Amino acid sequence: MTQSKIRPWIINALVAAMYVVLCLGPAAFSLASGAIQFRVSEGLNHLAVFNRKYIWGIVAGVILFDAFGPGASLLNVLFGGGQSLLALLVLTWLAPKLKTVWQRMLLNIVLFTVSMFMIALMITMMSSGVAFWPTYLTTALSELIIMSITAPIMYSLDRVLHFSDRIQ
User: Fold this and answer.
1) 19, 61 in Cβ contact below 8 A?
2) Which regions span the lipid bilayer (predicted)?
3) HSE (CB half, 13 Å, CA atoms) of 116?
4) 10 Å Cβ neighbour count for 110?
5) How far apart are CA 27 and CA 8, in angstroms?
6) Cβ atoms within 10 A of the Cβ of 20, count?
7) Distance between CA atoms of residues 139 and 132, nearest Å
């Protein structure tokens, strides 16, 4: 393999590792899984706005944390990884139609917020007596908040780091 073929693999491995590490802080306070999910690592979803090649590192990070973090289960891996992959694939399909980075980030926020129905469905399947709609409301609201907070941070970081160029 040439350096140009290895580089995306290494960058995606680093993104996956950062996702897991950024989940550990909220996990210590039970905020990385369940009906309220305040995962700072969700901000890494915005990397796909800059270059779709980041999708694999993001999804790998989600799968790793869901497989080995608090609340680890096969359902968590399937629904968590599936939700991220679905939202990111729809993003890469729709994003080229949008002119500005901010429009793509807003689309990303909407896609991840709406797709939290998959996580709410998983939680209601795994927990008896948990209602879908209140769970969807809290998970979607959590996602909306964290993705909205991290969007300007990722935008500012991109101005310095040029995310699209890093993974080429």
Assistant:
1) yes
2) 6-33, 77-94, 106-127, 133-157
3) 29
4) 15
5) 28
6) 19
7) 10
Residue 66 in tokens: 């869901």
The token duo for 87 is: 């939202």
Tokens of 166: 């890093």
Other Cβ atoms less than 10 A from the Cβ of 32: the count is 24
Q: How far apart are CA 35 and CA 120, in angstroms?
A: 7
Sequential DSSP letters for 72-121: --HHHHHHHHHHHHHHHHHHHHHGGG--SHHHHHHHHHHHHHHTTHHHHH
pLDDT in the model for residue 32:
60
| pLDDT value at residue 6 | 94
With H, G, I as helix, E, B as strand and everything else as coil, classify residue 45. Answer: helix
* Answer CATH for 3-166 from 1.20.950, 1.10.10, 1.10.1760, 1.10.150: 1.10.1760
Q: DSSP string spanning 139-167?
A: HHHHHHHHHHHHHHHHHHHHHHH-HHHHT
Coil, helix or strand for 145?
helix
Assigned token pair, 162: 């040029």
pTM of this structure: 0.93
pLDDT in tens, 151-161: 999 999 999 99
